[in-house]
Amino acid sequence: MKAIVVNQPGGVEQLQFRDFPKPKLQVGELLIKVKASAINRSDIIAREGKSNYLKTPILGIEVSGEVVEAASGTNIEVGTRVMGLVNGGGYAEYVVLPADRAIKIPDSLSFEEGAAIPEVFLTAYQTLFWLGELTHQDTVLIHAGGSGVGTAAIQLAKQMTQAKIITTAGSQDKLDFCRSLGADICINYKEQSFEEEVLKSTNNQGVDVILDFIGASYWERNLKSLKTDGRWIMIGILGGAEVNKMNIIELLQKRVQLKATLLTPRSDEYKKELTKEFVQKAMPLFNQNKMKAVVDQIFRFEDIQNAHKRMEANKNLGKIIIRVNK
Amino acid sequence: MKAIVVNQPGGVEQLQFRDFPKPKLQVGELLIKVKASAINRSDIIAREGKSNYLKTPILGIEVSGEVVEAASGTNIEVGTRVMGLVNGGGYAEYVVLPADRAIKIPDSLSFEEGAAIPEVFLTAYQTLFWLGELTHQDTVLIHAGGSGVGTAAIQLAKQMTQAKIITTAGSQDKLDFCRSLGADICINYKEQSFEEEVLKSTNNQGVDVILDFIGASYWERNLKSLKTDGRWIMIGILGGAEVNKMNIIELLQKRVQLKATLLTPRSDEYKKELTKEFVQKAMPLFNQNKMKAVVDQIFRFEDIQNAHKRMEANKNLGKIIIRVNK
């Protein structure tokens, strides 16, 4: 089968096709004929050689496709349309998916939409609810509202809580889209001081939960935006990793709960539990057309380099998809 | 009645006696004839003018004493021996104590021992269990093992869980005492590199929970000592507040949960709930002589300045107490 590997750590030119045997199944696993795979920032970090979570040389952490083989200990039929998080190997014609992480794709969704769901919706679910403990009375600040996780988080917060949703993005297009998904207050971070807008719209109290993809460059401003006893969920470093000065007194006075998280390196057990709860509580909202997969652009398998380029340029609104098997 | 106020922000010489009328009660409150009050680091910070949580000019956040008057909405009899957290005013002959925060003093304990319990045991309980989510399988690192909160935390962790307890202190006396309270591994931070010892004794995994009273000067070393998915509970800044360089990638890779907390500025409701759970789950251990109040030294009311000096010199092993009414 054809699959994409990294020749050596570096730029998009290092993404190369190579032939592999079809993967073999173990108990509890499904073999998926991959219809679509999605690009994640962690793929880029892996391509650059800055992380090594995956045991396979094949990139890709989520797919959609058809079950073509099911090992013992699974109860999903061959032919079922599924999506889910894989332990690497998603940029390939076939991949192994643990059955307890397979999510049935609603009939109303295409494979491309299916591939756009697992990573961002599971991450958004985990950060909003498991770590952020978002309640109906809360206000949440979702940075990068136009990103994959951002668009998923806005929808989940809107559909599953009565929380007030504040989001930031860098263009009017993105902000309009965020509003259409349910964001209450949309801030253009290029034109406005987001922390001032946050304080203005929360009676100077700040927000209960922040989803922070930005990191260092927003450190002080996020701290100002956070309410006492707030949960600050750190999931990215688009704005750098090094904070040059941090004052612990400020953390103590606000009784900050700073929770850093990544989904990919977590255990199989964790992903299974997260998937299970997500399927139960959030998947019905797709069936009822209350939530949607946000697909930015679909690339052919062969165009993987352009797909990576698009993400690196932060041009995407929602998920960048590659179509694998027809 | 006689009470201690701060003349103007500054050193111990600013602690002065002044006459006040006895406080008046509102619904749900008890008037306590104060037998003993305890010194807390937050009293020193308040004396220096660096915090202003309290609405009364009288210092002191915990007392033991006798109920001499009970307003409506209380169900504790006059004459009962109680201890508890007050909203300031504890360095005085009489003080108001909300009835839902009054803890009956076991017969086996003196008033001086009673005054040594509320703040440190409630703080230790809150940080170990509510924020630290300590389990039987966990390992906990308790810094400043000889301090008031340190000695309370070692006992609570030992008596209420099967967690492995690692502690640090700066003298052999303190370490021996920590061991007698139940600490499994006792590290002299002046002679050993605590993070190396922690890694050595946890198979290089690090600990699940850190109680951090130290702050900036231990930042990197605490981060090294923490296990993936660990909870790092920040409750003090004995080692300074300013961290000069912090790398968010390290937080992400370990999926650190950094939770900063203070007890005194929290709401009446929070203190009520914390007290209630503590009374139910931990107080029986005092009755069974499995836990003890750790009294360092008892000063006369008039000797308040020396009591503050002793804490500022970090000489105490356990709580510094002032005896108020006989």
Write a brief structural summary.
By secondary structure, chain A is of the alpha/beta class.
CATH class of the largest domain in chain A: Alpha Beta
Oligomer: homodimer
Tally of DSSP helical segments of chain A:
11
Rg of chain A (C-alpha, Å)? 20 Å
At the fourth level of CATH, the homologous superfamily of the largest domain in chain A is Medium-chain alcohol dehydrogenases, catalytic domain
CATH architecture of the largest domain in chain A: Alpha-Beta Complex
Helix proportion of chain A: 25-40%
End-to-end distance of chain A, in Å? 14 Å
SS-derived structural category of chain A: alpha/beta
Mean pLDDT of chain A: 96
User: How many discrete domains of chain A?
Assistant: 2
CATH topology of the largest domain in chain A: Quinone Oxidoreductase, Chain A, domain 1
Total beta strand runs of chain A: 17
Report the uncertain regions of chain A.
none
Secondary-structure element pattern of chain A, one letter each: EEEHEEEEHHEHEHEHEHEEEHEHHEHE
Strand content of chain A: 25-35%
